[in-house]
Amino acid sequence: xxxxxxxxxxxxxxxxxxxVGRRLYIPRGDRVTVxxxxxxxxxGVIPEAKSVRxxxxxxxxxxxxxxxxxxxxxxxxxxxxxxQIPVEGNPDGMLFDPxxxxxxxxxxxxxxxxxxxxxxxxxxxxxxxxxxxxxxxxDGQGHxxxxxxxxxxxxxVDAKTLKVTAHYDLGxxxxxxxxxxxxxxxxxLFVFCRKPATAVIMSADxxxxxxxLPIGAGTDGGGxxxxxxxxxSSQGDGTLTIIKENSxxxxxxxxxxxxxxxxxxCTLDPKTNRIxxxxxxxxxxxxxxxxxxxxxxxxxxxxxxxxxxxxxxxxILAVGR
Length: 321
What we know:
The chain is an all-beta fold and 321 residues long. The protein contains no helices and 28 strands.
């Protein structure tokens, strides 16, 4: 496993690999930091973001987009910002559909998805997904699959008409789905759930559950490598679970790779078969400050403040075969 301590302050969420442009995009709150996908060395910054959570790229138009409000649209070759696109909701994850050349900005609040034309940055429409979306995947043929965290199902979306065509229920086999992977060739979905920590494997055609397997705790991302026929889930407990698709009806956990605590989101570089994750080290949670009367105040969680990030500890991890 290769690691690169790249430092920097502020939070982070999703990480995205542009395999064609050979760049790695990491949102950092008020900016998107950009790295060389091969060397992991910094190559630039896209500034002026607001609470940015994710990024994606259309390799055909050479336009990149941030999951933020407003959404930033940039030139992936120069990293110059081309447009700011105001949206509704609370942008979180996002995905690009190559069949329609559209970007889908996901939000836990309505509208659940805002759809942007990647060619010119215009808003095409919005979608009610029936709940809070987490991660999505495209089959490259105009169909999207998006796990709905608070409803324990997967929404199937027609990327052209912007209509939900089905909801695949997890049938009590898994709950709070937060990661999703798709084997396009064999039409198989891997739905990574937090409660319990389970991968629910189902048919992308009709939602039939094919198998369930254990994964690590605290998943927040996943993917599928068609070259190795492996699905993978990244977890906050510092593990990366690898699931081998032995056949379209046979699956097994082959590895639980130790990564880094809180390395819960991931992305795949299909050129090198490397899985990239991000994480940082944190200090202890500070105790609540005492009130003038000497009585400790209480907050919503009955705890002190948020654990501080250890300076210069932010790290990119690249897991190879």
